[in-house]
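We treat protein structure as text, and this decision shapes the records that our systems exchange. The remainder of this section carries one protein's record, kept here as part of the documentation:
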Amino acid sequence: MADVAHANKGQAALQSSDYPTAIQHLTLALQTTKSPLWLIWRSTAYQRTSQHTLALADADNAVLAAIKRSSRPLIATAHFRRAVALHGLKRYGDARMCLRWVNEYNDKEKGLTIWIAKVAADYDKAGGEEAECNQITVLKVPDEVKEVSKDTKPPEDTKPVKEDKGKGPEVAVKPLVAAAPKPTTKENIRHEWYQSPTSVTIEILAKGVPAENTEVKIDAGSLEVSFPLAGSDSTYGFTIEPLFSKVDFTKSRYRITPHKIEIVLHKSTPGKWSALEGTEAIASELPSEKTEDIPAAAFKPETAPVYPTSSKNGPKNWDKLMGDEEDEKEGEDVDHFFKQLYKNADPDTKRAMMKSYQESNGTSLSTNWADVGSKKFDTEPPEGMEAKKWEI
């Protein structure tokens, strides 16, 4: 089949780091079959050519395709590609959330541990939970991103190309654009919340909320949200009064995305809330001015991120470091990274790393002692290799 032939050539080009050719072949293959694996491959090729927006679109579609096939390993890998693309877009909070989903579906995903550490470092460096780039807007089940192009006939050179030419067929890659979300009906609108010691985040999950007609009122002890519902004369209202505890409205904020309203309440007193709503009234401190929302962040594709290293050769490109074609020197940098990770870890993390590494004979590494303490690790050699017991 032509699509399989193009997919195989795309995979071969990807493995040889010929990313433009990989994109061309995989684009032809995906015209017929929306394989989650092929989408993952093309996402990787896009990401390694610094086309992070396109890489994210393919990864989102790969998650949906993998869910249809009920393949947990593919769902995990698709979320992993989302995390890498989001990191390239400097959306560290979203990248970190996707890595959590990777761990949920497959905690042995290749590269997971090192990317968790890398994203965590950039998250902290960017300013922690208060930084705009660290806010969480990503959805576990993303919306489909459609490929669109002008109504043209398929290219004539979609037949298999000769191997000795060394080039893929001249096929223009179609631009990817997000489909406009259909407004959520009133009965399907829901909310979720989570917290840190210093803040509470509330997400009202509703698509197509009209930002210009939405009102969000944050006071010291209350929260009010209202917006008109599309296709009707009614208004959706969400109110919490009193809040569980007093908040600092001057540091609290909100923003509206195509899929939800996200509200971040800054706790006046750090601690844990057992609920959103409290029992004792809190005096209003709201001024006459309306609380302003967060301006939409503008993310632009850029070159692959480079990080400091102790290598004599200078900074390293981490994506290349995680590629399939690592050389011996890059392996030394990975070894140095884990040594530094162990050196700076707390006692429980060190115990987890040592136990998982020793029991698995160097084939697994975990930093979570809560998981490692009661778990037995088996030796799991890389694909295509066989574990053998040495006899003296």
About this structure: The chain has three domains: 2-161+172-177, 181-301, 306-372.
